[in-house]
Amino acid sequence: MVRKGPDFVTPIRRVLIALMALALLALFLFWRIDSPRAEQMRTALIDRIVPRFEWALVPVTRVSQMIAGFQSYARIYEQNQELRRELQRMTAWKEAAVQLEQENSKLLAQNNVRIDPALTSVTGVVMVDSGSAFRQSVLLNVGAQDGIVEGWATMDGLGLVGRISGVGLRTSRVVLLTDPSSRIPVIVQPTGERALLTGDNTPLPLLEFIETSDNVRPGDRVVTSGDGGVFPPNLLVGQVAQGSDGRMRLRTAADYGRLEFLRVLRSHPAEAVADSDAVIRPGRWNGPAGPQLPQSPVEAAEATDPLDPGTAP
Amino acid sequence: MMQLPSRDLVIGTGLFLLVTWLLLFMRLLPLSAGVTGWPGPDLGLALILAWMLRRPDQLGAPVIVLVVLIEDVLLMRPLGLWTAVVLIGSEAARVREPRWRDQPFMVEWLRVAVLIGLMMLGYRFVQVLAVLPVAALGQVILQFLATVAAYPLVVFAARWLVGLRRMGRGDGA
Question: Does a structural domain hold residue B21?
Answer without folding.
Answer: yes
